[in-house]
Amino acid sequence: MKTLQRKLRMKGIRIPVDGKYGPRTRAGVRILQRKWKLKATGIADVALLARLGIKVRAVASTPAAAPGTAQYLKAFPVNGTHQLTKSWGAFRGSLQGQSHQGEDIMAAQGTPVVAVADGTIKRLTRVETGLGGIWIWLVDNAGNEYYYAHLTDIAPGLDAGSKVTAGQQIGTVGNTGDARFGAGHLHFEVHPGGGAAIDPYPDLIALDPSRGTAG
Tens digits of per-residue pLDDT, 27-63? Predict the structure, then answer.
């Protein structure tokens, strides 16, 4: 993340180099996107990073968590080239009526999305519905729930009640729902015990196979 911020500063955009994808960094990305006549999403997607000369390592597979490195997740949810943003709590406008309740993982459309734990598909939709578009709710064997939104599609054969294992592909990254026309990404939430969402960033960064390659 600091690499991105330094690159933006080199382009004359005054933002802090603090390693956080906060409002000022998003505003800086939008400034650069407008300058380059791109859609001003405020999201530093893989294409923008490449144009800035920032390499994001491709990942061949999603490893299981080493003991003690993540509290809830057993696998990273995106299996491929990606960028993990820190967007928990960001303002999402009056239409949503709340702050961002998950983390966004930027990746090209069609990048595999996998189960983060052994468990059961609680519910899903293959037709765009609401802000999340095409989405999946997964509940693990301990009762923790995980929400995957903006998918392009869901793996064949999966339905409510289907059993899955950590690392199994369950869908692909997309931009459905309120992400339509924006960059491909996975919106991911963690709900311990099926309750309120918590920031999944600590678990995600613990398992991120590309950690350290773009920050």
Answer: 888 898 888 888 777 777 767 777 888 765 444 344 4
Q: Which residues pair with 190 in a beta bridge?
A: 146, 198
Q: Kindly state the helix (H) or strand (E) to which residue 32 belongs, with its residue range.
A: helix 23-35
Decide if 149 contacts 197 (C-beta within 8 A).
no
Contact status, residue 134 vs residue 176, Cβ threshold 8 Å: yes
Domain ranges for the chain: 2-51, 83-207
Which CATH code, of 2.30.30.50, 2.70.70.10, 3.30.1330.10, 3.30.420.10, is assigned to 83-207?
Answer: 2.70.70.10
- The more confident residue out of 149 and 212 is 149
pLDDT digits (tens, 9 = 90+) for 182-200: 889 999 999 999 999 898 9
Encoded tokens for 33: 């996107």
Please report, as a single letter, which amino acid is at residue 112: P
